[in-house]
Write a structure and sequence with these properties.
Number of helices of chain A: 3
Number of domains of chain A: 1
CATH topology of chain A: F1FO ATP Synthase
Low-confidence stretches of chain B: none
Distance between the termini of chain B: 57 Å
Strand content of chain A: under 5%
Low-confidence stretches of chain A: none
CATH superfamily of chain A: F1F0 ATP synthase subunit C
Number of strands of chain A: 0
CATH architecture of chain A: Up-down Bundle
Largest sheet of chain B: none
Order of helices and strands of chain B: HHHHHHHH
Radius of gyration of chain A: 19 Å
Shape of chain A: rod-shaped
Helix content of chain A: over 70%
Mean pLDDT of chain A: 87
Radius of gyration of chain B: 23 Å
Shape of chain B: globular
Strand content of chain B: under 5%
Oligomer: heterodimer
């Protein structure tokens, strides 16, 4: 294989590896909503107040996954 | 590879708008979108507040809900004296919200999907909150970087960490908004590209099968609507939190 195609191959593999970070965000979002469901089970009256914080936490956690995506995009296209 | 290919990032290409005049002053389609958003916001508020009815109509109710939402956010999050910063937070919130929402429409440009735009907004917030901190507390604001109630021998470790996390604020604030909007638009583009690829590879069967990516795209529209509103909210509430830190120092 010539060096250019090796570089292209390595680029694709690197882009794929960069998306592993999304697993952590998956754990985080699952944890967040799991805790939300169990706390609503204990105190259903507080659902609306808690849901606002859950949405904020969801957005913050999801953003962490997107950092990995940005790295992958930078590797692939920049 | 022959046939259609997926050009995921082509949609964020800047082009000049407004003909020769725009080319002379580098007026891009991103600037056009910003101008349109500013006009939409002002028009919405002029329309909504024209009648000032006791029982509001639809537009007036929308405007009042937006106003009260941000108003409550300022009062609750910044705490005492938070209303001084309400105009800033409300401007940022409505600009980003309407910008995100307008960017969701086909053929409209999502200017929040450019890191240059979001970094400018985030740096403005960063410089402003730091300025508020020094204006309110003078040089005592530097005590913000010294966490209270920790042993003295830990301070050489903790103070650099505090400073680094403070300096990381504009980065995380801007990359969060930019990455969310970019990721959503890229996903749309990729799934739409799947439809073309399927049709090109499998003919009529591919065209039938491409109802799956189409359905996914429809579901993604709902998710992106949520994300567009949520990211504007997150940007605004983080601005409020930073202002709270600057005003109250903890």
């Amino acid at each position: 294989m010539d060096p250019t195609s090796v570089a292209l191959l390595a680029k694709d593999i690197g882009g794929g590896l960069a998306t592993i970070g999304v697993a952590g965000a998956g754990v985080g979002i699952g944890n967040l909503f799991g805790a939300f469901v169990s706390s609503v089970g204990r105190n259903p009256a507080a659902r609306d107040v808690m849901f606002r914080d859950v949405l904020l936490g969801f957005a913050l956690t999801e953003a962490v996954a997107l950092y990995a995506l940005v790295i992958a995009l930078v590797i692939l296209f920049a | 590879m022959a046939g259609p290919s997926i050009d995921a990032l082509g949609q964020f290409q800047l082009t000049t708008g407004l003909g020769p005049l725009g080319r002379a002053v580098d007026f891009t389609n991103s600037n056009e979108a910003m101008l349109a958003v500013a006009v939409i916001i002002v028009a919405l508020f002029v329309m909504g507040l024209k009648q000032k009815a006791v029982v509001p109509g639809r537009v007036q109710a929308l405007v009042e809900i937006l106003y009260e939402f941000v108003h409550n956010m300022c009062v609750d999050t910044i705490g005492e004296g938070g209303l001084r910063y309400f105009p800033l937070v409300f401007t940022l919130f409505s600009f980003i919200l309407i910008g995100n929402l307008v960017g969701l429409f086909p053929y409209f440009f999502a200017f929040t999907s450019h890191i240059a735009v979001t970094l400018t907004l985030a740096l403005f917030v960063f410089v402003f909150t730091t300025g508020v901190g020094f204006y309110t507390h003078g040089f005592k604001f530097l005590k913000f970087f010294v966490p209270s109630g920790v042993p003295v021998w830990l301070l050489p470790l903790l103070v650099p960490i505090e400073i680094i996390s403070y300096l990381a604020r504009p980065v995380s604030l801007s990359v969060r908004l930019f990455a969310n909007m970019t990721a959503g638009h890229v996903m749309w583009e990729v799934f739409a590209g799947f439809m073309l690829l399927l049709t090109a590879s499998f003919g009529i069967f591919g065209a039938f099968a491409s109802i799956i990516p189409l359905g996914l795209n429809v579901a993604l529209v709902a998710l992106e609507l949520l994300v567009a509103c949520l990211q504007a909210y997150v940007f605004a509430i983080l601005t409020c939190l930073y202002l709270h830190d600057a005003v109250h120092m903890h």
